[in-house]
Amino acid sequence: SETILAIQNLSKIYKIKTHPFSLKYAWLKAVNDVSLNIRKGELLGLVGESGCGKTTLAKLLLFLEKPDQGKIQWRDTLLTGLGPKKLKFWRRLVQPIFQDPFASLNPKQTINQILQEPLLIHHLGDSRKRNRAVNQVLTEVGLSPKLKTAYPHQLSGGQRQRIAIARALILKPEFIIADEPTSALDVSVQAQIVNLLLESQAKRQITYLFISHNLSLVANIAERIAVMYMGKLIEIMERNQFLGEHHPYTEVLWSSIPRLERKTKINVQQWGEPPNPLSLPSGCVFHPRCKQKIEICKKEEPSLKEIKPGHWIACHLF
Ligand code: SF4
Known about the structure:
- This protein has helices spanning 54-61, 88-93, 101-104, 111-121, 127-140, 157-169, 187-204, 215-221, 248-255, and strands at 3-17, 25-39, 43-47, 69-74, 77-78, 94-97, 175-179, 207-212, 224-229, 232-238, 305-308, 311-313.
- By secondary structure, the chain is of the alpha/beta class.
- It has one domain (3-313): Rossmann fold.
- The strands form two sheets. Strands 6-7-8-3-9-10-12-11 form an eight-stranded mixed sheet, sandwiched between helices.
- α6 (157-169) runs parallel beside α7 (187-204).
- The longest helix is centred in the middle third of the chain and has 18 residues, at 187-204.
- It is globular and about 70 Å long.
- The two termini are 26 Å apart.
- The relative contact order is 0.14.
- The model is unreliable at 260-266 (pLDDT under 50).
- Bound molecules: iron/sulfur cluster.
- GO terms for molecular function: ATP binding; ATP hydrolysis activity.
- Keywords: ATP-binding, Nucleotide-binding, Transport.
- Pfam families: ABC_tran, oligo_HPY.
- Residues 5-255 form the ABC transporter domain.
């Protein structure tokens, strides 16, 4: 289906001290030449270990960080290069949901204030309409409108994440970036929050970028999965390709999912420590940990190639 958001050759490089007391700097390629098309109405999972660049990519798409290179285009509008005023429409269309609802909700505001704020910022509705919108969205996320007078600390973790979702939904977004939205929650609450996101996706036709370290969770809900490693996209696959052949790194991720363990942390330690992000390996970034490497892997970087319709892999074996 139709591409709604096109990401082209996006890069973000940070200048970082090599050691806290050092005067030397090195370059960290947090997002390294990423290209990805997101389709209207899909739930696209973005998976990788912590530090792989997935949160930086989210920040670039939310324009919380500025890319050093590349383009982001929403439908026909090139977003990169727009000034803050012209970007305001985008700040309404795209909404984030973060991992820790406690950190993202102002503790001094009531739930009513928290939910009304986005409407006020975007000058939407009069006070009667805003009140109605708050009641509606609270009901939609499964909470009683009576909670309006409560403060975040009076709610449970699951309720707070429902408030964060309500705050995102109240602006009627077309695109939601959910960055580890269930990782801070109890296992028993995680499924409820995932179901709530899926309901909103179906009901409101929202496009989702669902970011997680948890491949088993993402494989259950996503229509496509993109895998990130050391700032690079190394695989993009469709649902019917989840069981097929994969990039050696993705294979590691699949095989590290214990069958009965639900809340799985990606554990690839047994394949060696990840390389130092400040000095990336030559050739394929995965080669120091790859069991299947061949001669060329150390010298030449593999590019992302479409090996079957919709299935992209960056590996010399394909
Ligand atoms: Fe392994 Fe080589 Fe493929 Fe990289 S390109 S994943 S080192 S086989």
